[in-house]
Amino acid sequence: MNITSPKSTSSEISKYHFTSQSGGKEAITRILQAYGFSTRQALCDRLGISQSTMANRWMRDTYPHDWLIACHLDTGVSMLWLTTGQGIPTDNAHDDSGLLLQLKEISNGVYSSIEQVRYDMRLTPQGAMAVFLVKFDGSFYLVDEFKGEINDGIWLIELDGFLSIRQVYRLPGGRLRVENGPASFECTTSDIEVTGKVISKIMYME
Fold this sequence. Notes:
Layout: H1 24-35, H2 40-47, H3 51-60, H4 65-75, H5 79-84, E1 99-107, E2 110-119, E3 131-136, E4 139-145, E5 153-159, E6 162-171, E7 175-179, E8 185-188, E9 193-203
Parallel strand pairs: 1-3
Antiparallel strand pairs: 1-2, 3-4, 4-9, 5-6, 5-9, 6-7, 7-8
Helix pairs in contact: 1-4
């Protein structure tokens, strides 16, 4: 008995929009999000590739088929979402695995430890691109890497080489107010370096 498969015609269009030679930057950005890395250098270290290889693919917008497969196997994040951006990042078959994020603990103003933990992707706000976790003063913060003008909010900042998470308010004249209890102060935007915006906080109740 011969079994034949349905033949597709040239008029049929797949609902999935796979790209063969372009779309590399968007795909690499999704890979960073899946791993929870805030820099492409961290992805280089994870994949064991050189900075020049990363830079070459990024600049040429080359589609990273091999990196997408590696990321899917490492994190369990949906291959459909990784490759096309369609659907949701979490596969039903991998719900228990969670998103692999970096957890950075701040002690005495510096990162005292960095490890990787699993985090439920459903708890990550839509639109967050490069998230990681920070433990600071007994609380855990979900932080999204940030580049741009600072405004009112809670931020991961660096001041005189010391890292901290503070409530910051934007004042007229390009000045900021950094809340720190009795040690609150005002400064200019050039006095502090902002490395991330806090998007959620987990704290222990006494």
